[in-house]
Design goal:
The complex is a heterodimer. By secondary structure, chain A is mainly α. Chain A contains 13 helices and 2 strands. Chain A has a single domain, classed as ABC transporter involved in vitamin B12 uptake, BtuC (Orthogonal Bundle). Chain A has helices spanning 2-8, 11-36, 44-62, 65-89, 94-117, 143-147, 152-170, 172-182, 184-189, 194-220, 232-242, 247-270, 277-295, and strands at residues 132-133, 149-150. Chain A has a two-stranded antiparallel sheet. In chain A, helix 2 (11-36) packs parallel to helix 7 (152-170) and helix 7 (152-170) packs across helix 8 (172-182). The radius of gyration of chain A is 20 Å and the shape is globular. By secondary structure, chain B is mainly alpha-helical. Chain B has one domain (3-350): ABC transporter involved in vitamin B12 uptake, BtuC. Helix content of chain B is 70%, strand content 3%. In chain B, strands 1-2 form a two-stranded antiparallel ribbon. Classes of the chains: A mainly alpha, B mainly alpha. The interface between A and B is large, with 46 and 46 residues.
Chain lengths: 314, 351
Amino acid sequence: MTEILGEILQVGFFAAILRIATPLILATIGEMFTERGGVLNLGIEGIMLLGSMAGFSAAYFSGSLWLGILAAMAVGALAALLMGFLTVTLGLSQHVSGIGTTLLCTGLAFFLYRLIFGQPSVPPNVEAFQAVPLPLVSKIPVLGPMLFNHFALVYLALLLVPAAAFVLYHTPWGLSLRAVGENPRAADGAGVSVAKMRYQALVLSGMLMGAAGAYLSMAQFNAFTFGVISGRGWVCIALVVFGQWSPWKCLAGALLFGFVDALQLRLQASGVIDIPYQFFLMLPFVLTIVAMGAVSRSATPPAALLVPFRKEER
Amino acid sequence: MIRLRLETRSHTPGWLKLVLPLLAILATLLICAGLVAMAGADVLAAYSKLLLSAVSSRFNFVETLVKAAPIAFTGLAVAVAFRAKFWNIGAEGQLLAGAMAAAFIGGRAALPGWSLVPLMLLCGMAAGAAWALLPALLKTRYRVDDVVTTLLLNFIMFYLMMALVDGPWKDPLSGYPDSPDIRVAAEFPILLGGTRLHLGVLLAFVAAPLVWFLMRRTTLGFNIRAVGENATAARYAGIRIPVVITGTAALSGALAGLAGVGEVGGIHFQVMAGLSPGYGYTGIVIATLALLNPLGVLPAAFFFAVIITGAESMSRATGVPVFLADVFQGVALISMLIAILFTQYRVRVQR
């Protein structure tokens, strides 16, 4: 037990939590926005993968990591537009549309990566993002290296949470989005375009999911691999439920997942507990399901989630 | 001015249900042609490899049938579950559960040889069903979303399998992370000498009409469809929804489990990392193309087996990445989803 505590109570461990949680924060906040508008975006896993591939490729050829992030966001937005066409314009099943989008994006990511890079013996890589120590505050002992010596994207993800909360609860756009997700008929009557709001939320979610994927292949790692997402997108769907569709609680969920994932990585490396390492890989998924079981009874999703809106039908 | 208008249909003509999947596949071929051209290959040459390799020789045809068996089972599993709107995206994990059970039973030295194959089938079904019951219980007891749990359980089962083949099941001689071979007596009988046409393929052909009968002619099937079509009405009619959801999950998981049993008993004789290249997810595409009709699952499974095997020979001959088959599945699912709209609406031209 003391050995496990020894692994946890280290500055590096807390820094790792934030690093691991960052892509989850980005994608979970994105998913929260679409679900608040009434659309479940199950394309998330595929969009993250395609974003990861597109961002990596753009960075590899342009030499600019930020251009890679932009490319990933653009590709994510395009995939989300497809999702919008299927679920908003055509009103198709959100479940099957999302799985279709994920299958398509996953296939495209594999296909295009092979087309661009072939099958080299050494996978191509990029010079990944470097940590940016914030002036002054990064010099604070303990807290500095824990919180203020990270990739720029980590700070941006943390800033995204209050920004998302502000937009959702304190702007007309956020009010309209919540109205569209709770009672689209009333929102429509009040002059809000349900379709427009849902499209906008979807595009926003796609951009965040794309960025989350790109973070994995350009910051957390320095190359794209086929298994780079391996279920992180699905975890984000669970985190939105766990976070009760609220930005701050979503952040808490992402940090909790980051904690468990960082812990299993530490324990794997330290060999304190001698079991096959696959059990450690399994741990975050098991805890995600347990957490879902704990909160789902009391969770109240947006009332119009999964329900297509057709203006002419009454 | 000519205007197009959508009108709701009162009923769907039968011929439309046959034409729509064909239209969806045609649209998919057209869309994917763009990718083939992007890869710098001659579209017609690549497509003739993709679509005709399967029927170019007797050997290839049988291999395609062999490939169709697991995805027919996962297609049936999804078709049953989606009918009740139980979103089982977990056929992949249930397949692995069935495969692990089969590999375990098939290796038992203490069991009499004749009992191995029937026990593998039974235990594989039980393992798949058990793995599907978990999300069903979480859904009915704790209202946990079934999509998320079935998806996450796929990863858990995969890691569980890898822990086994990397630990207690690791082959001590080769050191490879794959389980010991099952006993010879546990290998599925071959139906056609000199090929890999095994018992599992026959079982898939038999299972489809059986599942159709169960869905159309039995109370359980009626209840499953009633819950899926209108849960509120079903509840007022006295149908106990949690019981039906649980039964659906068990049936769906058992079918997916059989896919895994067939792969172990008829093809690999062991479990390892590459046992299922996403057969569980392909099942969703197949079930959708079959309009959730168990009989339609068979031709749909055969078609996707053609694509999966054809993509490999296309890739060898023309250099188009083999992953075209994955894109194809995604595009086909989306195309079919759009095509299904025409079963509910008709397009009217107004002048």
